[in-house]
Write a structure and sequence with these properties.
This protein is mainly α. It is built from 3 helices and no strands. Helix 1 packs across helix 3. One of its GO terms (molecular function) is zinc ion binding.
Length: 71
């Protein structure tokens, strides 16, 4: 069973890998439509607000809560 710490670590690892890939990928190819954590489609509204969002709203909120909890 995955606990909050495992989920936070998975999100951090996925974000780190996506950041490295983004550096190595041309700007035109960076548009992402699926969340790197859960694979669900990132909403058009979120992509309009954050064009290079890597997480859906739910996963972004979870990551932020876990990050605040870690501090």
């Amino acid at each position: 069973m995955i606990d909050d710490v495992d989920r936070a670590n998975d999100l951090a690892d996925a974000e780190r890998a996506a950041s490295i890939a983004a550096i190595l990928t041309p700007v035109a190819a960076r548009a992402r439509t699926n969340c790197i954590a859960c694979g669900e489609r990132i909403s058009d509204a979120r992509l309009a607000a954050v064009p290079f969002a890597q997480h859906c709203v739910d996963c972004a909120n979870t990551a932020e809560k876990l990050e605040r909890h870690r501090r």
